[in-house]
Each structure stands twice: as structure tokens, then as C-alpha cells.
Design a protein that fits this description.
By secondary structure, the protein is an alpha/beta fold. It has helices at about 5-15, 20-25, 30-45, 60-85, 100-105, 110-115, 170-175, 225-230, 240-250, 280-290; strands at about 50, 55-60, 90-100, 120-125, 140-145, 155-165, 190, 200-205, 210-215, 220, 235-240, 255, 265-270. Helix 1 packs across helix 2, helix 1 crosses helix 3 and helix 1 (about 5-15) packs across helix 4 (about 60-85).
Length: about 300
């Protein structure tokens, strides 16, 4: 019996939660799936799955074996990718983590073009503003918008984005436009929860560095929500140009205190350090580098 087939079948059963669904995913018959798992358990001399009429669950031994199987299968896929890299072929599952607003506004329209160029790559794009552990959580690549610190990961700068202080013209008509950063304390402000400075906004003005402590009436961990509230004339936001650039160009939002510049952040692709970068990862990095260079 093919041991890798046994492991693939076992992992498929765990993922699907049933033999029937695993058979559909593998394009096999249910008896064949059951036979693979039964012969695997017989050869190992342990029960890997608890079976009831309603559900399947892993035994303690099954949980350990499941983890090791996935490591081995992942290693096999990586080895195949390294060999295929000589021909430049990109294939297999590519697991990507991207920030929510950037993933929706900027990257979502690009995935169709990437699929057209690399039809053998299957994408799993997960959106989160949390800084994930790329290695520990099993991502092939993550997009980070940050002043990137040094790390053990490989990083590739794709573009940059400027952080802009802005509000709607209607809001500024009602409340007046700030004449200095200190005036922000008198205004309605929408804060972004993941802002590294917390309640302190930093600017580089004509007289040098300026720090302003803000008192937001609302906090949110999502840039699209900040933008929507500002477009509803409810306050001032500090958000990146990739998110508010079109609104500024159309006049829906107005930049405030342009002589006081906030930070500029790099947009990076980060991925685990490896001697050989998988073709699927290299393909995505090259694709994004080409497409996102137009942001600058």
C-alpha cells in the first residue's frame, strides 16, 4: 500500500469530518477511503479515529499522527516545487495573509489576473489586520504595511503608502478646519485600534516633529470603517492613501494640514527564509511587485 496515499486519505478524512465527504474531495469511492484508513490503523496497530454515527474525532494517537502527516506531505510538496522551479512552473496551494482593507480595496481585483497567469496555483487568501506568525501559522506569504523591523523572514518591498489626515468637506464646513495639530483635540476623531502610536499621532511639520494626543469618540480595528464614518461627515481620520486616495481625488474627503506630514509605510511581501523559494511564492511576489508599483 502506498504510504503517502494512506496519509493523504487520512488527512482528507480529518479535514472533511466524514468518509463520504473525503471520498468526494479525493474523487474516490467511500469503500476505498475506508479501506485506506483501516489498513493504516492495522499497520500502525493503533486506532486513529473515534467513529460514531454522527461524527468523527481524532484519538490522542491520531492527533499526533495527523500533525506529522501534514509535515511530511508539506515537505513532499515543497521538494516537488524546488525541483519544478528549474522549469519555472508555479503550482500547488498558496496560503496568503493580507490586511483586511488592503486585501479588499487593492488586492481583490488582482486575483483573477494572477489566476490567468498561473492556473495551476490554488489560492487561499485570508484577511486579517492581526500580525500573524507566518511560520507558526503555516502561511506561504504575508503582506505587511509597516515600517518593517528586521526579522528572520525574507521581505520584498512592493510599494509604499502615505498616511493622510483627512475629513469630509461637510464636516470641515460644520466644525472648521484645524490650523495646527493641537487643534485636533477640539475635533471629532475616529481612531484606528491597530495604530502603533495608540492615542498619539505623530507629524513632521515646518518646525520639526510634533506629537498630538487625540481623544477619539470612536475606535475601530478596520480602516474601511474609519473611511465610511469620515464619509458620513462624522470626524477626522488618519488613514493610508491606498484606502482614501480615490476619495481625496474626487473631493469626497479633503486632506487636512498638508504641511504636517504623517509617516510613509512600506508595503512588503514577507515569507519564510528558505534556501529555495517555491515557484508559487516567487510567482506571486513578482506579480504583486509589477502590479503594485503603479500605486507609487
Amino acid at each position: 500500500m502506498d504510504r503517502f496515499q494512506e496519509m493523504q486519505t487520512f488527512c482528507a478524512v480529518v479535514d472533511a469530518g466524514s468518509f463520504v465527504k473525503a471520498a468526494d474531495a479525493l474523487h474516490m469511492s467511500k469503500p476505498a477511503v475506508s479501506r485506506y484508513v483501516a489498513e493504516l490503523e492495522a499497520r500502525l496497530g493503533v486506532r486513529l479515529l473515534h467513529r460514531t454515527t454522527r461524527r468523527l474525532s481524532l484519538t490522542e494517537e491520531g492527533a499526533v499522527f495527523n500533525t506529522r502527516c501534514r509535515e511530511l506531505l508539506s515537505g513532499l510538496e515543497e521538494a516537488e516545487s524546488e525541483v519544478s522551479s528549474r522549469s519555472g512552473a508555479a503550482r500547488g496551494l498558496l496560503r496568503v495573509n493580507v490586511p483586511v482593507s488592503f486585501g479588499i480595496q487593492t488586492l481583490a481585483p488582482l486575483w483573477d489576473a494572477f489566476h490567468g497567469q498561473h492556473p495551476q496555483v490554488r489560492l487561499n487568501v485570508e484577511l486579517s489586520d492581526r500580525v500573524v506568525d507566518v511560520v507558526e501559522e503555516g502561511y506561504d506569504l504575508a503582506i505587511r504595511i509597516a515600517d518593517l523591523p528586521s526579522s528572520s523572514l525574507i521581505s520584498k518591498r512592493l510599494a509604499s503608502t502615505r498616511i493622510v489626515l483627512c475629513a469630509s468637506p461637510q464636516y470641515l464646513k460644520m466644525y472648521g478646519e484645524p490650523s495646527s495639530p493641537d487643534d485636533l483635540s477640539k475635533h471629532e476623531v475616529i481612531g484606528y485600534s491597530y495604530w502603533l502610536g495608540g492615542n498619539v499621532w505623530h507629524f513632521d511639520g515646518p518646525g520639526g516633529q510634533v506629537e498630538v494626543k487625540i481623544n477619539p469618540w470612536m475606535f475601530t480595528n478596520n480602516g474601511d470603517t474609519c473611511r465610511a464614518v469620515a464619509l458620513a461627515h462624522q470626524g477626522i481620520i488618519l488613514q493610508p492613501t491606498f484606502l482614501v486616495g480615490d476619495d481625496l481625488a474626487a473631493g469626497r474627503l479633503m486632506e487636512i494640514l498638508p504641511e504636517y506630514r504623517s509617516i510613509e509605510l512600506g508595503i512588503y511581501a514577507v515569507y519564510p527564509t528558505r534556501k529555495h523559494v517555491a515557484p508559487k511564492v516567487r510567482a506571486l511576489v513578482n506579480f504583486l511587485e509589477e502590479k503594485l508599483s503603479k500605486l507609487e
